[in-house]
Amino acid sequence: MRHRTVALSTLTTLAAGLVFASPAQAADGPVTDLGIAPGARVNRTVELRPTVAAEADVAQLQLWANNAPVAYDYAAPWSLSWNTRGIIDQDVPVYLVAVDKDGNKTPTGKVTVRVDNYAPLASFPQGWGSSQQYPASNNSFTGIQRFSLTPAGDADTVRWIQLSVGGQVIDTATAAPWPVTWDTSAFPEGVVKLTATTTDDLGNTTQNSAWLWVDRTGPATTVRFPQVAGYVSVHQPLAVEASDPATVDRAELYLNGVLADTATLNGAGVADLDLAAGTANGPATLTVKTYDHLGNVTEQTRSVVVDNDKPVAAGAPGSSYLRGTFGAGVSNFRDATGAAYLAVYFDDFRGTGFTERSPWYVHVNSRAVADGRHTLAWDVKDKAGNLTQLRRSVYVDNTAPAVRFGTAPKNRAKLTRKVTVKAIAADRFGIARVQLLVNGKVVATDSKAAFSFTLNPKKFGKKFTVQLRAYDRAGNVKYSTKRTYRR
């Protein structure tokens, strides 16, 4: 085989001077056979051995493809080498140009051949292999997977498709629909790069890869008990939260080995699972199972206590009149599993105090509501989540009462005998008591209107002060002005 080179300027000059002959004229020309048949499929480097008439004056042969010179030869036996590797698969028109010793050029008629340097690309099932970093429902697998590879384009030219991992062939398909088998048990969990190598009848090969995940692990699962872990009730569901790259199918709840409830999660999320009605109080074995869409299962089993009874309790304080920030709790509490939560509040959760620990005592701010009638609420839960709600109507009073002297000696008066001192006291919700103070000390208390006191000056010094102090029913206090007396 001989290869000769010519300058680009020479090729350009030759191209400008070509006069194409028709196929009939070409048959009368010096080239009687191009050495390549119309419609031929060619690839890589093609060797053309054209036939030139013995008496023809031919000093040079040129091979043109896609209207550009690609090879040439200068002497018999004529042979031209055409490197097609830079051409994407397509139909290409080719012809020869014969040049005599005087530079006259005679082209042949054009023939079209098919350049085919690439085997059809084999595709994995739709949606496979979208990421090598994140597993998902459409690229996670377990067990033995049987699927078909789909060659694009000229599928009838395919001779075989090999499925490999890391350069090791694991299966070969030799006929449509090109089925292959992948046994995931031969690989550790995690990402696996599968490669499909297609070989056609010309020996061309192409490769296509998919990143898939081997998944033999059930969903990540969290079981949330109604109130305290290990305690359950027919009145309160268990919340089961599950997630899985292959998506979660369902969750199941078993008690003492018997299926109590099941829920479909449709991908991921939280499902509420209930005990069967009529489940008896007492110790039991609880099992939660979650399944992904591949059939992998996660199972959690533990001992629990079933408690279906609400707590019994009384609310404290018992007073109907409240002010400021006060303490509240429960008394006479009875429950099989014990308290777990207490909240005390006004109306719609205003002024709330809550706790999750003993001694089950909280502080509630009555200033969160206006003075007046309200509902004081106690919510107490046991460890199984059973809720008891206590309600009581109360009056909130954060306003001090009014108090002043009514009947009494004038300020700075001289007293020589016993006198009567009367108080005038008022409050929206009522006066609990009024006290008479002498020199700052309580000497008398009256809890009935008209709040009357007897003051004996002989019990005190030559000069002393007198003052009134009133309490309303909520415990708010108010002092009157002071009066000074002498004797």
TrEMBL record:
It comes from Actinoplanes ianthinogenes. It comes from the Bacteria. Residues 371-398 form the Ig-like domain. It holds the Pfam family Big_7. Residues 1-26 form the signal peptide. Keywords: Signal. This is Ig-like domain-containing protein. InterPro entries: Ig-like_bact, Ig-like_fold. The keyword Signal applies.
